[in-house]
Write a structure and sequence with these properties.
Layout lengths: L8 E7 L2 E6 L5 E2 L4 H11 L1 H6 L2 E3 L10 H13 L8 H4 L3 H7 L15 H8 L12 E3 L1 H14 L9 E8 L2 E2 L8 E3 L4 E4 L2 E5 L2 E6 L11 H15 L4 E6 L6 H9 L2 E6 L4 H6 L1 H14 L3 E9 L9 E10 L2 E2 L2 E5 L8 H9 L4 H12 L10 H25 L10 H9 L3 E5 L4 E5 L6 H14 L2
Parallel strand pairs: 6-12, 12-13
Antiparallel strand pairs: 1-2, 3-18, 4-5, 6-10, 7-9, 8-9, 10-11, 13-17, 14-15, 15-16, 15-17, 18-19
Length: 462
C-alpha cells in the first residue's frame, strides 16, 4: 500500500547509542510486491481474460473508466492477496503493483484512481445472470463460468500425454450464514444456519463449486455437475478412465446407476446398518479378540456382494472393514464398481478410499485462505458469483504452485502459506517514463523461490 508522507516522526528508544526513529515518509510503497508473480501466472494460463469473457458489458464505452477485464482481475488478484472484501479496494485502488498487474497505471479522469473502488466492484459482484439490464449494466453467463475451471484443468495437461485415470473427489461442506440471506436454512448436523456448497476436485485442481441451500440431501445436484464435467473431459480425452470418490452422502442409486451406464467408476462410503454389521459379525469378534490379546487396534477386511432391500437396482460390491479400536467396534463400509482384480479389499479401502480425506484440505484452502465462505450478500445468485470469484483466486494460486514452485520447498504449501512467503513482500515502487521499478526487501528469505517461479512462469507464458 502507498504510504502518505508526513513530517511526524516516532521515537522507539535507542539501540547501541542510536535512536530508532520511524516516519511515514518512504513514498510509494507496497506490501504486495509478490503480486507480480500472480500477474505472471495469469499471463501463463489466461485466467482473467477468460473469466472476463464470461461477463457481458452493457455500459457505454465512452463513459467506461475501468474495463471489465480490469475489474475482474482486480477482484481475483485482491482475493489471492488476502483482501476478502470489496471495501478493501478503496485503499487498494491506489496500489501501484496491483495497478501494474491489471494493466492500468493511471485513470483517464483526474478525480479517479487507477483502479476501481468498492462501489464499482460491488456492482460487478451483483451482476445478474444473463444479459445486462437497465439498472445492472454488467451481466454474467453462469454456464460459461462453470465450464472455465474444467477448461483450465484440461489446459494444464496440454502438450503432455493424457492421464490414464482421473480421480474426481466430491464433497459437501457448510458455509455458515450470519444474516438473512436468500436460501438460508438451519442444518442440524452443523448446528447453524448455512449454505451447503458442493465441491468437485481432481487432486489440487478445483473443477466445480456449486452453492446450494442447506435443506437438501448432500448429493443433490451432484449428478448434473458430474455429467457436465465428465462430458467436458471426454471431449478432450475420450479414453481416460474416471473414478468418482465421495463419502456415504453420495452413495445414491441415481448417481451409481449413471456411473455404471457411462463408463465411470466409483467408490463411495456406505452408511452402516444392522444388516451390514451382522454380515461381518465374525470378523468383528475376531478383531476384538486380537485387540484384547495384543493391546493394539486390529482390523480385517471382507468383500460382500450386496443389495439393499428396495433402493438399489442391482447387487454391488461392498468392502467391509471390521475394526476394533479404543475398546470398541468401528465397522466401516464402502460400495464400489471396481472389481477384486483391480483392487483387493484392503487396498481399495486404505489406499483408494481413505485418500479422499485430502480433499478436506483443499476445501479448507478455498474457504479459509481464499474466502469462499464470504457469502454475505442478500441473494443466492450474488453469493454464487462471490464463490466463483474466490474459486478463480484459488485456481490462480494453484497454477502458481504447479508451474512456478514445482520441486521447491513450497511445492506442497497451502495457498495461505504461499501468500505469506511469496506475495506479501514489502517494496519501494518508482515509476518513471521508461519503467516501473519495484525494489523489494533485500532481507526476503524466499528470494530463490521467487526467482525460480519468475523464470518458469515467464517461459510458460510463451
Amino acid at each position: 500500500m502507498p504510504a502518505q508522507c508526513s513530517a511526524e516522526q516516532f521515537l522507539f528508544g535507542t539501540v547501541e547509542g542510536r535512536a530508532v526513529v520511524a516516519a511515514f515518509d518512504a513514498g510509494t510503497v507496497t506490501s504486495d510486491a509478490g503480486a507480480l508473480l500472480l500477474g505472471a501466472t495469469d499471463r501463463a494460463i489466461g485466467l482473467v481474460r477468460r473469466f472476463a469473457a464470461c461477463f457481458e458489458d452493457g455500459r457505454s464505452a465512452e463513459n467506461v473508466e475501468h474495463t471489465l477485464a480490469a475489474l475482474v482481475g482486480q477482484r481475483v488478484f485482491g482475493l489471492a492477496l488476502g483482501y476478502e472484501d470489496v471495501n478493501d479496494h478503496d485503499q487498494l485502488r491506489h496500489d501501484p503493483v496491483l495497478a501494474a498487474i491489471t494493466g492500468k497505471l493511471a485513470a483517464r479522469r483526474s478525480d479517479c484512481a487507477p483502479l476501481a473502488g468498492k462501489s464499482t466492484l460491488n456492482r460487478l459482484e451483483h451482476a445478474p445472470a444473463g444479459e445486462p439490464t437497465r439498472y445492472h449494466k454488467i451481466g454474467h453467463d453462469g454456464a460459461a463460468i462453470e465450464r472455465l475451471p474444467v477448461e483450465l484443468f484440461l489446459d494444464a495437461h496440454k502438450g503432455g500425454k493424457p492421464p490414464k485415470r482421473l480421480i474426481l473427489d466430491l464433497d459437501a461442506t457448510d458455509d455458515p450464514l450470519h444474516g438473512e440471506q436468500e436460501g438460508r436454512f438451519f442444518h442440524a448436523y452443523y448446528d447453524c444456519y448455512c449454505y451447503l456448497p458442493l465441491y468437485v476436485f481432481c487432486g489440487r485442481h478445483l473443477l466445480a463449486a456449486k452453492l446450494r441451500r442447506a435443506n437438501i440431501d448432500a448429493s443433490a445436484g451432484a449428478l448434473e455437475e458430474i455429467a457436465r464435467i465428465v462430458q467436458q473431459i471426454r471431449i478432450r480425452w475420450p479414453r481416460v478412465r474416471i473414478l468418482l470418490r465421495a463419502d456415504s452422502g453420495f452413495a445414491r442409486e441415481e448417481l451409481m446407476a449413471w456411473c455404471e451406464a457411462n463408463r465411470v467408476d466409483y467408490v463411495f462410503g456406505l452408511a452402516r446398518n444392522a444388516r451390514l454389521v451382522e454380515a461381518i459379525a465374525a470378523g468383528l469378534a475376531a478383531t476384538h479378540a486380537e485387540s484384547e490379546m495384543t493391546g493394539r487396534p486390529a482390523r480385517r477386511f471382507k468383500d460382500l456382494l450386496w443389495s439393499t432391500l428396495d433402493s438399489w437396482s442391482r447387487r454391488r460390491r461392498v468392502v467391509a472393514k471390521a475394526e476394533w479400536t479404543k475398546g470398541e467396534a468401528n465397522p466401516r463400509f464402502v460400495v464400489t464398481s471396481l472389481s477384486t482384480a483391480e483392487a483387493d479389499a484392503r487396498t481399495l479401502y486404505e489406499q483408494t478410499y481413505c485418500a479422499r480425506g485430502e480433499m478436506e484440505n483443499r476445501i479448507k484452502e478455498a474457504q479459509g485462505d481464499l474466502f469462499a465462505d464470504r457469502t454475505s450478500t442478500k441473494t443466492m445468485k450474488a453469493n454464487q458469483l462471490r464463490l466463483w470469484f474466490a474459486s478463480m483466486a484459488y485456481v490462480l494460486i494453484c497454477a502458481l504452485r504447479r508451474i512456478g514452485l514445482k520441486h521447491t520447498q513450497l511445492a506442497a504449501a497451502t495457498c495461505g502459506t504461499i501468500r505469506l512467503r511469496l506475495l506479501k513482500i514489502g517494496a519501494l515502487v518508482r515509476v518513471s517514463c521508461r519503467r516501473i521499478k519495484v525494489a523489494m526487501a533485500s532481507a526476503c528469505p524466499y528470494q530463490a523461490e521467487y526467482a525460480l517461479a519468475h523464470l518458469r512462469l515467464s517461459r510458460a507464458a510463451f
